[in-house]
Amino acid sequence: MTFIETEEQKELRASVSRLGERFNYIDYVLPKARRGEPLTELWNEAGKLGFLGVNLPEEYGGGGAGIYELALVQEELAAHGAGLLLVVVSPAICGTIIGKYGTEDQKQKWLTGLADGSKIMAFGITEADAGSNSHQIATTARRDGADWLLTGNKIFISGVDQADAVLIVARTEDSKTGKLKPALFIVPTDAENFVKTAMEMDIVEPDHQFMLFLDNVRLPADALVGEADAALMQLFAGLNPERILGAAMAIGVGRYALDAAVDFAKQRTVWKDPIGAHQGISHPLAQIKIELELAKLMMQKAAVLYDSGDDFGAAEAANMAKYAAAEAGIKALDQAIQTHGGAGLTKEYGLASMLGAARIGRVAPVSREMILNFVSQHSLGLPKSY
Ligand SMILES: Cc1cc2nc3c(=O)[nH]c(=O)nc-3n(C[C@H](O)[C@H](O)[C@H](O)COP(=O)(O)OP(=O)(O)OC[C@H]3O[C@@H](n4cnc5c(N)ncnc54)[C@H](O)[C@@H]3O)c2cc1C
Protein backbone atom coordinates (compact mmCIF):
# COMPACT_ATOMS: atom_id res chain seq x y z
CA MET A 1 0.00 0.00 0.00
CA THR A 2 1.44 3.38 -0.94
CA PHE A 3 0.13 6.89 -0.53
CA ILE A 4 2.66 8.45 -2.88
CA GLU A 5 0.70 9.38 -5.96
CA THR A 6 2.02 8.44 -9.40
CA GLU A 7 2.70 11.07 -12.06
CA GLU A 8 -0.56 9.99 -13.75
CA GLN A 9 -2.55 10.51 -10.56
CA LYS A 10 -0.92 13.91 -10.00
CA GLU A 11 -1.77 14.93 -13.56
CA LEU A 12 -5.34 13.74 -13.10
CA ARG A 13 -5.61 15.78 -9.89
CA ALA A 14 -4.28 18.87 -11.70
CA SER A 15 -6.62 18.56 -14.67
CA VAL A 16 -9.70 17.92 -12.51
CA SER A 17 -8.71 20.92 -10.44
CA ARG A 18 -8.60 23.06 -13.61
CA LEU A 19 -12.14 21.91 -14.45
CA GLY A 20 -13.26 22.72 -10.89
CA GLU A 21 -11.75 26.17 -11.24
CA ARG A 22 -13.75 26.74 -14.45
CA PHE A 23 -16.99 25.55 -12.83
CA ASN A 24 -16.29 27.00 -9.41
CA TYR A 25 -18.70 27.43 -6.53
CA ILE A 26 -19.25 31.19 -6.57
CA ASP A 27 -19.64 31.70 -10.34
CA TYR A 28 -21.31 28.45 -11.40
CA VAL A 29 -22.45 26.07 -8.64
CA LEU A 30 -24.01 28.50 -6.17
CA PRO A 31 -26.28 30.30 -8.67
CA LYS A 32 -27.36 26.90 -10.05
CA ALA A 33 -27.95 25.52 -6.55
CA ARG A 34 -30.02 28.57 -5.61
CA ARG A 35 -32.18 27.95 -8.68
CA GLY A 36 -32.31 24.19 -7.91
CA GLU A 37 -30.80 23.35 -11.29
CA PRO A 38 -28.52 20.35 -11.85
CA LEU A 39 -24.88 20.90 -12.81
CA THR A 40 -25.41 19.51 -16.32
CA GLU A 41 -22.66 21.51 -18.05
CA LEU A 42 -20.07 20.43 -15.51
CA TRP A 43 -21.32 16.82 -15.61
CA ASN A 44 -21.08 16.71 -19.42
CA GLU A 45 -17.64 18.26 -19.48
CA ALA A 46 -16.34 15.92 -16.76
CA GLY A 47 -17.79 13.01 -18.75
CA LYS A 48 -16.11 14.13 -21.99
CA LEU A 49 -12.76 14.45 -20.22
CA GLY A 50 -13.08 10.87 -18.93
CA PHE A 51 -13.28 11.88 -15.26
CA LEU A 52 -16.69 10.32 -14.50
CA GLY A 53 -15.73 6.88 -15.76
CA VAL A 54 -12.15 6.82 -14.55
CA ASN A 55 -12.89 3.74 -12.40
CA LEU A 56 -14.79 1.79 -15.08
CA PRO A 57 -13.22 -0.87 -17.32
CA GLU A 58 -11.40 0.37 -20.42
CA GLU A 59 -13.22 -2.03 -22.75
CA TYR A 60 -16.46 -0.15 -21.95
CA GLY A 61 -15.00 3.32 -22.42
CA GLY A 62 -13.80 3.82 -18.86
CA GLY A 63 -10.36 4.83 -17.63
CA GLY A 64 -9.48 1.39 -16.25
CA ALA A 65 -8.31 2.90 -12.96
CA GLY A 66 -9.93 2.43 -9.54
CA ILE A 67 -12.08 3.94 -6.82
CA TYR A 68 -8.93 5.76 -5.63
CA GLU A 69 -8.95 7.78 -8.85
CA LEU A 70 -12.71 8.39 -8.80
CA ALA A 71 -12.39 9.64 -5.20
CA LEU A 72 -9.56 11.89 -6.34
CA VAL A 73 -11.85 13.35 -9.05
CA GLN A 74 -14.63 13.95 -6.52
CA GLU A 75 -12.29 15.48 -3.93
CA GLU A 76 -10.73 17.93 -6.40
CA LEU A 77 -14.10 19.05 -7.78
CA ALA A 78 -15.51 19.45 -4.26
CA ALA A 79 -12.40 21.43 -3.26
CA HIS A 80 -13.73 24.07 -5.71
CA GLY A 81 -17.22 23.71 -4.23
CA ALA A 82 -18.20 21.71 -7.33
CA GLY A 83 -18.55 18.15 -6.00
CA LEU A 84 -21.04 16.04 -7.94
CA LEU A 85 -23.50 14.12 -5.73
CA LEU A 86 -24.39 11.78 -8.58
CA VAL A 87 -20.78 10.63 -8.95
CA VAL A 88 -21.33 8.88 -5.62
CA VAL A 89 -24.22 7.01 -7.18
CA SER A 90 -23.86 6.60 -10.95
CA PRO A 91 -20.24 5.52 -11.61
CA ALA A 92 -19.33 4.60 -8.01
CA ILE A 93 -22.21 2.38 -6.90
CA CYS A 94 -24.05 1.45 -10.09
CA GLY A 95 -21.01 1.33 -12.41
CA THR A 96 -19.08 -0.80 -9.92
CA ILE A 97 -21.91 -3.28 -9.36
CA ILE A 98 -22.72 -3.65 -13.08
CA GLY A 99 -19.01 -3.89 -13.92
CA LYS A 100 -18.53 -6.68 -11.39
CA TYR A 101 -21.78 -8.59 -11.61
CA GLY A 102 -23.64 -7.46 -14.76
CA THR A 103 -24.11 -9.62 -17.85
CA GLU A 104 -22.22 -8.75 -21.04
CA ASP A 105 -25.43 -7.19 -22.40
CA GLN A 106 -25.92 -5.05 -19.28
CA LYS A 107 -22.30 -3.89 -19.46
CA GLN A 108 -22.63 -3.00 -23.15
CA LYS A 109 -25.90 -1.22 -22.55
CA TRP A 110 -24.90 0.79 -19.45
CA LEU A 111 -21.19 1.06 -18.77
CA THR A 112 -20.17 3.09 -21.82
CA GLY A 113 -22.90 5.64 -21.06
CA LEU A 114 -22.07 5.77 -17.35
CA ALA A 115 -18.39 6.18 -18.27
CA ASP A 116 -18.84 9.24 -20.50
CA GLY A 117 -21.70 10.62 -18.42
CA SER A 118 -24.23 10.40 -21.26
CA LYS A 119 -26.24 8.00 -19.07
CA ILE A 120 -26.98 8.40 -15.39
CA MET A 121 -28.15 5.71 -12.99
CA ALA A 122 -29.59 6.59 -9.59
CA PHE A 123 -29.57 4.16 -6.66
CA GLY A 124 -32.55 3.32 -4.48
CA ILE A 125 -32.30 1.39 -1.24
CA THR A 126 -33.84 3.68 1.43
CA GLU A 127 -37.49 3.15 2.37
CA ALA A 128 -39.61 5.24 4.73
CA ASP A 129 -40.51 2.34 7.01
CA ALA A 130 -37.02 0.83 7.06
CA GLY A 131 -34.70 3.88 7.26
CA SER A 132 -31.26 2.89 8.53
CA ASN A 133 -32.45 -0.68 9.00
CA SER A 134 -32.15 -1.78 5.37
CA HIS A 135 -32.76 -5.42 6.39
CA GLN A 136 -36.32 -4.19 6.75
CA ILE A 137 -36.89 -3.07 3.15
CA ALA A 138 -40.16 -4.30 1.70
CA THR A 139 -40.01 -3.56 -2.04
CA THR A 140 -40.70 -6.98 -3.49
CA ALA A 141 -39.89 -8.59 -6.84
CA ARG A 142 -42.15 -11.38 -7.96
CA ARG A 143 -41.67 -13.68 -10.97
CA ASP A 144 -44.33 -13.49 -13.69
CA GLY A 145 -43.28 -15.92 -16.39
CA ALA A 146 -39.87 -14.72 -17.54
CA ASP A 147 -40.59 -11.19 -16.29
CA TRP A 148 -40.32 -9.60 -12.86
CA LEU A 149 -42.99 -7.47 -11.19
CA LEU A 150 -41.68 -4.90 -8.70
CA THR A 151 -43.88 -3.35 -6.01
CA GLY A 152 -42.89 -1.01 -3.20
CA ASN A 153 -41.69 2.48 -2.44
CA LYS A 154 -38.43 4.35 -1.86
CA ILE A 155 -37.57 7.68 -0.28
CA PHE A 156 -34.75 10.28 -0.54
CA ILE A 157 -33.53 8.91 -3.88
CA SER A 158 -31.15 11.47 -5.41
CA GLY A 159 -31.16 12.60 -9.02
CA VAL A 160 -34.05 10.50 -10.40
CA ASP A 161 -35.04 13.45 -12.64
CA GLN A 162 -31.61 13.34 -14.28
CA ALA A 163 -31.37 9.55 -14.43
CA ASP A 164 -32.14 7.08 -17.21
CA ALA A 165 -32.66 4.30 -14.69
CA VAL A 166 -32.57 3.54 -10.98
CA LEU A 167 -30.75 0.55 -9.55
CA ILE A 168 -33.40 -0.59 -7.09
CA VAL A 169 -32.68 -2.83 -4.13
CA ALA A 170 -35.68 -5.12 -3.75
CA ARG A 171 -36.31 -8.55 -2.28
CA THR A 172 -37.19 -11.77 -4.01
CA GLU A 173 -39.04 -14.62 -2.42
CA ASP A 174 -37.02 -17.80 -2.04
CA SER A 175 -39.13 -20.48 -3.73
CA LYS A 176 -38.01 -23.12 -1.20
CA THR A 177 -38.00 -21.27 2.13
CA GLY A 178 -40.34 -18.35 1.37
CA LYS A 179 -37.71 -16.02 2.92
CA LEU A 180 -37.08 -12.66 1.28
CA LYS A 181 -33.56 -11.97 -0.03
CA PRO A 182 -32.16 -8.71 -1.45
CA ALA A 183 -31.80 -8.46 -5.22
CA LEU A 184 -30.85 -5.61 -7.55
CA PHE A 185 -32.90 -4.46 -10.53
CA ILE A 186 -32.28 -1.87 -13.24
CA VAL A 187 -35.54 0.06 -13.49
CA PRO A 188 -35.84 2.57 -16.35
CA THR A 189 -37.21 5.90 -15.11
CA ASP A 190 -39.82 5.84 -17.90
CA ALA A 191 -41.17 2.41 -16.93
CA GLU A 192 -44.94 2.12 -16.68
CA ASN A 193 -46.29 2.30 -13.10
CA PHE A 194 -43.04 3.88 -11.87
CA VAL A 195 -43.92 7.21 -10.27
CA LYS A 196 -41.44 9.74 -8.89
CA THR A 197 -42.39 12.65 -6.63
CA ALA A 198 -39.88 15.38 -5.80
CA MET A 199 -39.34 15.89 -2.07
CA GLU A 200 -39.36 19.34 -0.53
CA MET A 201 -35.86 19.45 0.92
CA ASP A 202 -34.53 22.49 2.73
CA ILE A 203 -31.00 22.32 1.31
CA VAL A 204 -29.43 24.73 -1.19
CA GLU A 205 -28.17 22.15 -3.70
CA PRO A 206 -28.43 21.44 -7.41
CA ASP A 207 -29.69 17.85 -7.09
CA HIS A 208 -33.12 16.77 -5.89
CA GLN A 209 -34.39 13.85 -3.86
CA PHE A 210 -37.45 11.81 -4.81
CA MET A 211 -40.01 9.44 -3.38
CA LEU A 212 -40.60 6.51 -5.70
CA PHE A 213 -43.76 4.43 -5.99
CA LEU A 214 -43.60 1.15 -7.87
CA ASP A 215 -46.88 -0.57 -8.49
CA ASN A 216 -46.30 -3.89 -10.28
CA VAL A 217 -43.61 -2.40 -12.52
CA ARG A 218 -43.02 -5.02 -15.21
CA LEU A 219 -39.37 -5.69 -15.98
CA PRO A 220 -37.76 -8.16 -18.37
CA ALA A 221 -35.68 -11.03 -16.96
CA ASP A 222 -32.46 -9.19 -17.77
CA ALA A 223 -33.33 -6.29 -15.44
CA LEU A 224 -31.91 -8.40 -12.59
CA VAL A 225 -28.24 -7.64 -11.94
CA GLY A 226 -26.23 -10.67 -10.85
CA GLU A 227 -27.72 -13.53 -8.93
CA ALA A 228 -31.01 -13.14 -7.10
CA ASP A 229 -29.52 -14.86 -4.05
CA ALA A 230 -25.98 -13.44 -4.01
CA ALA A 231 -27.18 -9.89 -3.73
CA LEU A 232 -25.80 -9.07 -0.30
CA MET A 233 -22.25 -9.54 -1.56
CA GLN A 234 -23.12 -7.55 -4.69
CA LEU A 235 -24.57 -4.77 -2.56
CA PHE A 236 -21.36 -4.55 -0.50
CA ALA A 237 -19.39 -4.15 -3.71
CA GLY A 238 -21.29 -0.90 -4.31
CA LEU A 239 -21.63 0.38 -0.76
CA ASN A 240 -17.92 0.65 0.01
CA PRO A 241 -17.32 2.88 -3.04
CA GLU A 242 -20.36 4.93 -1.98
CA ARG A 243 -18.80 5.59 1.44
CA ILE A 244 -15.37 6.35 -0.01
CA LEU A 245 -16.90 8.78 -2.52
CA GLY A 246 -19.01 10.38 0.23
CA ALA A 247 -15.80 10.86 2.21
CA ALA A 248 -14.09 12.40 -0.83
CA MET A 249 -16.92 14.90 -1.25
CA ALA A 250 -16.81 15.87 2.44
CA ILE A 251 -13.02 16.30 2.39
CA GLY A 252 -13.34 18.49 -0.71
CA VAL A 253 -16.00 20.64 0.98
CA GLY A 254 -13.70 20.93 4.00
CA ARG A 255 -10.79 22.00 1.81
CA TYR A 256 -12.96 24.59 0.08
CA ALA A 257 -14.10 26.02 3.44
CA LEU A 258 -10.59 25.99 4.90
CA ASP A 259 -9.12 27.77 1.85
CA ALA A 260 -11.85 30.41 2.03
CA ALA A 261 -11.22 30.90 5.77
CA VAL A 262 -7.45 31.15 5.37
CA ASP A 263 -7.73 33.67 2.50
CA PHE A 264 -10.09 35.80 4.55
CA ALA A 265 -7.99 35.51 7.73
CA LYS A 266 -4.90 36.73 5.84
CA GLN A 267 -6.66 39.83 4.53
CA ARG A 268 -9.16 40.98 7.12
CA THR A 269 -7.58 43.41 9.58
CA VAL A 270 -9.55 45.04 12.38
CA TRP A 271 -6.72 45.56 14.91
CA LYS A 272 -3.12 46.05 13.87
CA ASP A 273 -2.53 42.62 12.21
CA PRO A 274 -4.72 40.43 10.00
CA ILE A 275 -7.18 38.35 12.10
CA GLY A 276 -5.23 35.19 11.14
CA ALA A 277 -2.52 36.37 13.55
CA HIS A 278 -4.88 35.74 16.50
CA GLN A 279 -4.56 32.20 17.78
CA GLY A 280 -8.30 32.16 18.41
CA ILE A 281 -8.58 32.17 14.60
CA SER A 282 -5.42 30.32 13.52
CA HIS A 283 -5.51 27.35 15.91
CA PRO A 284 -8.99 26.08 14.98
CA LEU A 285 -7.95 26.36 11.30
CA ALA A 286 -4.72 24.46 11.96
CA GLN A 287 -6.69 21.80 13.83
CA ILE A 288 -9.08 21.45 10.90
CA LYS A 289 -6.16 21.13 8.48
CA ILE A 290 -4.90 18.18 10.58
CA GLU A 291 -8.34 16.57 10.81
CA LEU A 292 -8.92 16.87 7.05
CA GLU A 293 -5.51 15.33 6.31
CA LEU A 294 -6.23 12.45 8.71
CA ALA A 295 -9.64 11.83 7.17
CA LYS A 296 -8.04 11.88 3.71
CA LEU A 297 -5.46 9.30 4.77
CA MET A 298 -8.22 6.98 5.94
CA MET A 299 -10.12 7.55 2.70
CA GLN A 300 -7.00 6.68 0.70
CA LYS A 301 -6.47 3.55 2.81
CA ALA A 302 -10.07 2.50 2.18
CA ALA A 303 -9.72 3.12 -1.57
CA VAL A 304 -6.44 1.23 -1.83
CA LEU A 305 -7.90 -1.72 0.11
CA TYR A 306 -11.00 -1.70 -2.04
CA ASP A 307 -9.04 -1.50 -5.30
CA SER A 308 -6.88 -4.41 -4.14
CA GLY A 309 -10.04 -6.55 -4.05
CA ASP A 310 -10.42 -6.67 -0.28
CA ASP A 311 -14.12 -5.77 0.07
CA PHE A 312 -14.39 -6.82 3.69
CA GLY A 313 -11.12 -5.16 4.71
CA ALA A 314 -12.22 -1.98 2.96
CA ALA A 315 -15.53 -1.84 4.87
CA GLU A 316 -14.02 -0.76 8.22
CA ALA A 317 -11.75 1.84 6.60
CA ALA A 318 -14.56 3.14 4.32
CA ASN A 319 -16.89 3.59 7.29
CA MET A 320 -14.21 5.30 9.37
CA ALA A 321 -13.24 7.53 6.44
CA LYS A 322 -16.83 8.60 5.82
CA TYR A 323 -17.28 9.37 9.53
CA ALA A 324 -14.04 11.32 9.89
CA ALA A 325 -14.49 13.20 6.61
CA ALA A 326 -18.07 14.27 7.31
CA GLU A 327 -17.15 15.51 10.78
CA ALA A 328 -14.05 17.36 9.52
CA GLY A 329 -15.93 18.85 6.55
CA ILE A 330 -18.80 20.17 8.69
CA LYS A 331 -16.39 21.54 11.29
CA ALA A 332 -14.33 23.24 8.57
CA LEU A 333 -17.39 24.94 7.12
CA ASP A 334 -18.63 26.08 10.53
CA GLN A 335 -15.19 27.49 11.38
CA ALA A 336 -14.95 29.17 7.97
CA ILE A 337 -18.23 30.95 8.70
CA GLN A 338 -16.95 31.98 12.15
CA THR A 339 -13.68 33.23 10.66
CA HIS A 340 -15.63 35.44 8.27
CA GLY A 341 -17.68 36.98 11.08
CA GLY A 342 -20.82 38.62 9.68
CA ALA A 343 -19.50 38.19 6.14
CA GLY A 344 -19.82 34.42 6.62
CA LEU A 345 -23.58 34.80 6.68
CA THR A 346 -23.86 36.99 3.59
CA LYS A 347 -24.91 35.87 0.13
CA GLU A 348 -21.66 37.18 -1.32
CA TYR A 349 -19.52 34.46 0.30
CA GLY A 350 -22.13 31.68 -0.05
CA LEU A 351 -20.73 29.76 2.93
CA ALA A 352 -23.96 29.56 4.91
CA SER A 353 -25.69 28.19 1.77
CA MET A 354 -23.30 25.24 1.87
CA LEU A 355 -24.29 24.17 5.36
CA GLY A 356 -27.22 21.94 4.38
CA ALA A 357 -25.27 20.17 1.66
CA ALA A 358 -22.26 19.62 3.95
CA ARG A 359 -24.58 18.32 6.66
CA ILE A 360 -25.83 15.56 4.30
CA GLY A 361 -22.51 13.80 4.95
CA ARG A 362 -23.40 13.16 8.58
CA VAL A 363 -26.69 11.46 7.64
CA ALA A 364 -26.15 9.83 4.23
CA PRO A 365 -25.36 7.41 2.73
CA VAL A 366 -25.04 5.95 6.22
CA SER A 367 -25.50 7.99 9.37
CA ARG A 368 -22.81 8.86 11.89
CA GLU A 369 -24.57 6.68 14.49
CA MET A 370 -24.75 3.62 12.24
CA ILE A 371 -21.00 3.93 11.61
CA LEU A 372 -20.39 4.12 15.35
CA ASN A 373 -22.54 0.98 15.67
CA PHE A 374 -20.42 -0.73 13.00
CA VAL A 375 -17.16 0.19 14.74
CA SER A 376 -18.53 -0.79 18.18
CA GLN A 377 -19.57 -4.20 16.95
CA HIS A 378 -17.06 -5.11 14.24
CA SER A 379 -13.90 -3.30 15.33
CA LEU A 380 -14.39 -3.50 19.10
CA GLY A 381 -16.48 -6.68 19.39
CA LEU A 382 -19.09 -5.02 21.60
CA PRO A 383 -22.61 -6.48 21.75
CA LYS A 384 -25.36 -5.17 19.48
CA SER A 385 -28.15 -3.18 21.13
CA TYR A 386 -30.73 -3.32 18.33
C1 LIG B 1 -29.79 14.51 0.72
C2 LIG B 1 -29.98 13.04 0.84
C3 LIG B 1 -29.73 12.25 -0.26
C4 LIG B 1 -29.96 10.86 -0.19
N1 LIG B 1 -29.80 10.09 -1.32
C5 LIG B 1 -30.13 8.77 -1.28
C6 LIG B 1 -30.08 7.97 -2.47
O1 LIG B 1 -29.71 8.44 -3.55
N2 LIG B 1 -30.46 6.68 -2.40
C7 LIG B 1 -30.87 6.10 -1.22
O2 LIG B 1 -31.20 4.92 -1.23
N3 LIG B 1 -30.95 6.83 -0.08
C8 LIG B 1 -30.58 8.14 -0.07
N4 LIG B 1 -30.65 8.91 1.08
C9 LIG B 1 -31.15 8.29 2.30
C10 LIG B 1 -30.10 8.13 3.40
O3 LIG B 1 -29.25 7.05 3.08
C11 LIG B 1 -30.87 7.94 4.73
O4 LIG B 1 -31.45 9.20 5.04
C12 LIG B 1 -29.96 7.50 5.84
O5 LIG B 1 -29.50 6.18 5.61
C13 LIG B 1 -30.67 7.55 7.22
O6 LIG B 1 -31.92 6.94 7.16
P1 LIG B 1 -33.21 7.72 7.70
O7 LIG B 1 -33.24 9.08 7.12
O8 LIG B 1 -34.41 6.87 7.50
O9 LIG B 1 -32.95 7.88 9.27
P2 LIG B 1 -33.43 6.91 10.43
O10 LIG B 1 -33.03 5.50 10.14
O11 LIG B 1 -34.87 7.17 10.70
O12 LIG B 1 -32.57 7.44 11.64
C14 LIG B 1 -32.89 8.65 12.35
C15 LIG B 1 -31.78 8.88 13.38
O13 LIG B 1 -31.70 7.76 14.29
C16 LIG B 1 -30.39 7.23 14.27
N5 LIG B 1 -30.46 5.77 14.45
C17 LIG B 1 -31.22 4.88 13.73
N6 LIG B 1 -30.98 3.62 14.15
C18 LIG B 1 -30.05 3.71 15.13
C19 LIG B 1 -29.38 2.76 15.96
N7 LIG B 1 -29.58 1.46 15.85
N8 LIG B 1 -28.46 3.23 16.85
C20 LIG B 1 -28.18 4.56 16.96
N9 LIG B 1 -28.80 5.50 16.22
C21 LIG B 1 -29.72 5.08 15.31
C22 LIG B 1 -29.81 7.62 12.92
O14 LIG B 1 -28.40 7.62 12.95
C23 LIG B 1 -30.40 9.00 12.72
O15 LIG B 1 -29.63 9.94 13.41
C24 LIG B 1 -30.41 10.28 1.03
C25 LIG B 1 -30.61 11.10 2.14
C26 LIG B 1 -30.42 12.46 2.07
C27 LIG B 1 -30.69 13.31 3.27
Describe how the helices and strands are arranged.
Elements: H1 7-22, H2 25-35, H3 40-48, H4 67-78, H5 85-101, H6 104-116, E1 121-124, E2 140-144, E3 147-158, E4 165-173, E5 180-188, E6 194-198, E7 209-219, E8 224-225, H7 231-267, H8 279-307, H9 311-339, H10 355-363, H11 368-379
Structure description:
- The longest helix is centred in the middle third of the chain and has 37 residues, at 231-267.
- The protein contains eleven helices and eight strands.
- The mean pLDDT is 95.
- 50% of the residues lie in helices and 15% in strands.
- Strands 1, 2, 3, 4, 5, 6, 7 and 8 form an eight-stranded mixed beta sheet that branches.
- A hairpin with a 2-residue loop joins strand 2 and strand 3 (147-158).
- The structure holds flavin-adenine dinucleotide.
- Residues 89, 122-126, 131-132, 156-158, 209, 360, 363-367, 369-370, 373, 386 line the site of flavin-adenine dinucleotide (FAD).
